[in-house]
Design a protein that fits this description.
7-stranded parallel β-sheet; Rossmann fold; alpha/beta
Length: 370
């Protein structure tokens, strides 16, 4: 039986939740069934390294804003040259242009994954989405919240919007004790220090200023704390200055972009998601897989993942005091943290495993092709 020619389309391979999700999925898809091509509309990025030893062809179009139609032509040509049978797109620009190109090229199956809520979209974006809907076979939403927005706001046919949540490989987030000790030494953590923090892109959606404000309340209640902020982004300088203004800069560790996420999660006693907008954050899944007690805001798909208090705490968004109360409650109760972390990992293994996600997506591909 000949392999199916599959093309995934995304903007770049820079660090980001959607980008990490695509890379994780492509690594898990059955290479005996699929000839896989990944097309990046703009450029590569550090995540390219994770696909280095996979049987995947990566194509870069180097698209610029004013030359969209040249990129569209190249994408159509790519589909025809490789006799693509399925196009699967991710994020707004790649999804719009990728679906248009697939339709022009006569690709029989067109799938788009909706990674975020998309509430930023203006009337023109919604108009273009409705055009693209006409020749999209299935839109995969990463949470029930994202699915309902696509149906209600973008008028996508309900039967064409399926919910398959983001997923990870849980075994990638268990580390040995010696690795944990090595990371604690790297950041100068003392034996009595309790650590909470997050892994995120430093942008407004993540509301990291609220996490810093919460840290002030936590520091007033618990003496030996450190806050680990893993990531980078446009608000890095603002957050550093804000920590200084709040008088907690000596307790904050800005790590910058890191690849050793499992090791960094291992030194956190509590993981915090302070976002005001989310789909289903991959970093939250990773923290729970690493057996971390979590405090997350009640936005997007967060409450779907942290579905009851046995696996984590859900608090209102943009409320630094509520965030702090959750962190303090967990830092003060080691037994609760450990119980919560164990059940959190079990939830990820049972509901958010990449093997389960990949098989569901392969099933959609095959059903549509048949």
């Amino acid at each position: 039986m000949s392999k199916i020619n599959l093309l995934h389309v995304i903007s770049t391979l820079c660090f980001g939740g959607a980008e990490k999700q695509v890379v994780t999925l492509l690594r898990e898809l059955d290479k005996d069934k699929y000839n896989i091509t990944l097309c990046c509309l703009r450029a590569g990025g550090p995540l390219e390294e994770e696909l280095k030893h996979e049987d995947i062809d990566i194509v870069f179009l180097r698209m610029r804003v004013r030359y969209f139609f040249i990129a569209l032509y190249r994408l159509v040509r790519l589909c025809k040259k490789k006799h693509i049978q399925i196009v699967h797109t991710h994020l707004y620009d790649p999804s719009f242009w990728g679906r248009i190109a697939a339709w022009i090229a006569g690709v029989p199956v067109i799938v788009a994954t909706e990674h975020g809520r998309g509430m930023w979209k203006k009337k023109r974006h919604l108009f273009f989405e409705r055009i693209a809907n006409r020749f999209t076979d299935v839109r995969i939403a990463v949470s029930e919240d994202v699915r309902s927005i696509r149906i209600q706001r973008e008028h996508a046919p309900p039967q064409k919007v399926l919910m398959i949540p983001n997923a990870i490989s849980p075994d990638d987030f268990i580390v040995l004790d010696d690795v944990r000790e090595e990371k604690r030494k790297e950041f100068g953590l003392k034996n009595g220090d309790l650590v909470f923090g997050t892994v995120a892109r430093f942008d407004p959606d993540k509301a990291l200023d609220k996490l810093l404000e919460a840290a002030v309340f936590v520091a007033e209640s618990i003496r030996h704390i450190r806050i680990l902020l893993v990531g980078d982004g446009p608000l890095r300088k603002y957050l550093e200055d804000y920590a200084e203004k709040l008088g907690i800069s000596d307790k904050i560790i800005f790590t910058g972009m890191r690849k050793d996420i499992a090791g960094l999660l291992s030194i956190m006693d509590v993981y915090v998601n302070s976002s005001i907008r989310e789909g289903i954050p991959v970093s939250l899944l990773e923290a729970m897989a690493a057996e971390k007690a979590v405090v997350a805001t009640c936005v997007g798909g967060n409450p779907e993942v942290v579905h009851d208090e046995s696996v984590g705490l859900i608090v209102p968004p943009q409320n630094s005091k509520a965030l702090a109360d959750g962190i303090i409650a967990l830092l003060r109760n080691k037994q609760l943290r450990e119980s919560m972390g164990s059940k959190a990992r079990e939830r990820i293994q049972n509901n958010y495993s990449i093997k389960m996600q990949a098989r569901k997506i392969e099933s959609i591909y095959e059903k549509l092709l048949n």
